Amino acid sequence: MESHAGSALQKHTLLWFIIAMAQCVSGQRCGAHYEYAIEEFCLAKFRLDMQELDQSQWCSWEDTAEFYEELTNCTYLLALNMSCFWPNQMVDEFFIQVHRHYFHDCSMSGRRLRDPPNRILGPFIVVPILVTLLMTALVVWRSKRSEGIV
User: Fold this and answer.
1) Which of 40, 62, 79, 124 has the greatest number of C-beta atoms within 10 Å?
2) Are 50 and 102 in contact (CB under 8 A)?
3) Is residue 15 within 8 Å of residue 23, measured between CB atoms?
């Protein structure tokens, strides 16, 4: 009975070893080919798209979001077609390099700080000024009116 259990354990261990080796081989297959593919297809297009923008616009999320989304989708679709896992360590390292090159001077939020449009900023300026003037006029009017009553 013990030899039967030992034999089953060996078969189970051997099965897991074969599965692990197959995953390693398929992962290595993805390695060099996948890396080449994302650099030649995805990164090449992203570079062209970013060259169309002025370098001062690289930190503007509104200007780069579409390009960045296309880059992300490209790496995903290539991984899917090559039967690779996504995301993986190679994709992480790839995006770290992209960020180091294109977005190293950007703020953590990824947005350039700027004033809101005048249609939003205007009421925040005009309303307190009008309330202050109205309250001042009301106080002056009430103080003059109360002097005549006494």
Assistant:
1) 79
2) yes
3) no
The tokens describing 51, both together, are: 């060259």
Conformation bin of residue 84: beta by default, left when phi > 0, alpha when psi is -120 to 50:
beta
For 75-115, write each residue's pLDDT tens digit: 999 888 888 888 888 899 999 999 999 888 787 665 556 77
Q: Say whether 116 sits in a helix, a strand or coil.
A: coil
DSSP state of 87: S
Cβ-count burial of 71 within 10 angstroms (0-12 exposed, 13-18 middle, 19+ buried)? buried
Query: What b/e string do you get for 76-104 counting C-beta neighbours within 10 Å, with b at 16 or more?
Result: eebbeeeebebebebbeebbeebeeebee
Using 50, 70 and 90 to split pLDDT, how confident is the model at 44?
A: very high
